[in-house]
Amino acid sequence: MSDDRHPAFMPLILVGGLIFGFGLAYSHMARPEVVLDFLQFEDFGLVFVMFGGAAVTGVAFVLGPRLLGRAPLTGDTFERRLKSFDRNVLVGGAIFGVGWGLSGICPGAAYASLGIGNVTILWALAGMFLGAYLQGYWRTRSETSDTAATGAD
Amino acid sequence: MVIEALPLQATAELFPNGISRYAVGGLLVGLGTVVIYLGTGISAGASTFLESTLSYVSDRSRFQQYVSSRDWRVVFTLGIILGAAVYAVVYQGGAWTTDVQPWRLLLGGVFVGIGTRVGKGCTSGHGVCGVGSASKTSIAGVLTFLAVAIITAQLVSALGVSP
Question: N or C: which end of chain B has fewer CB within 10 A?
């Protein structure tokens, strides 16, 4: 779908990203200190960020397919984001939890943090790319013997 | 300040900064996701950008599977950065930088990079899109990383590491 993409595809992705990033900055998710305050039970506000976001997507995920049928810019059918459950979800979740609890930073919030002028966050971004590379390097090697394909969003 | 905190003692203790900034921000995060979803059918997460971008510089098959989506993921991420920059200019009045120590950011980042990829998603993919889809996998992922993150942050704090 790369060549016959709708001309509005990229602009729409950009607008969606703009709103997403503005929301992350507005919610102060882009400040590691605020996330760490939440994890240390000093400010429970972040509950509203995740569940507020999930509530909005939840409504759209239900209504979108009924009102639109197919996505106007790609012609794709609407599907729920359902990933297969296996041990990796728990193992990876736990590893991610260690990183989130140590640094107060997750991927989307780290990009937004750069946008609010937090150049120090480049340490976290460098770490994330390093971690993703190490994981991909290891996964590629292990897949040569084990051909199980893994989907990702 | 549409949704200002109720004047209850308990509310003030749980939410020292009120709830409006979090609620409004969260609704906007959801709205950004919805704009992309309704237009394209894609439920976008932020962590795949790490792998998809690595496909520009690495030939490994693990990264090459994201070649078809890597361009729009770059645009999505640039949008996130720009949107946050708009907030910084309009509301923040300039740049803000963290006091959290670089070693925590770097080491935490490595764990985040590995964990989101092994665990198939992050706070936006699992937390916003997945929970919004009522996906049991995502709910299990969120509960796992939330619990471990709380334990980790409390331990680090108890060891006297600050900020």
Answer: N
Q: How far apart are CA B92 and CA A107, in angstroms?
A: 21
CA distance A34 to chain B (A): 10
Contact in structure between A101 and A39 (CB atoms under 8 Å): yes
Q: Which residues of B touch A98 (CB under 8 A)?
A: 108, 111, 115, 148-149, 152
User: pLDDT of B52-76, one tens digit each?
Assistant: 999 999 998 889 999 999 999 999 9
For A78, the closest chain B residue by CA position comes to: B41
ipTM: 0.93
Q: What is the CA radius of gyration of chain A?
A: 18
The full set of domain ranges for chain A reads 9-152
Nearest 10 degrees: Cα torsion B102, B108, B113, B116 = -150
Beta bridge partners of A70: A77
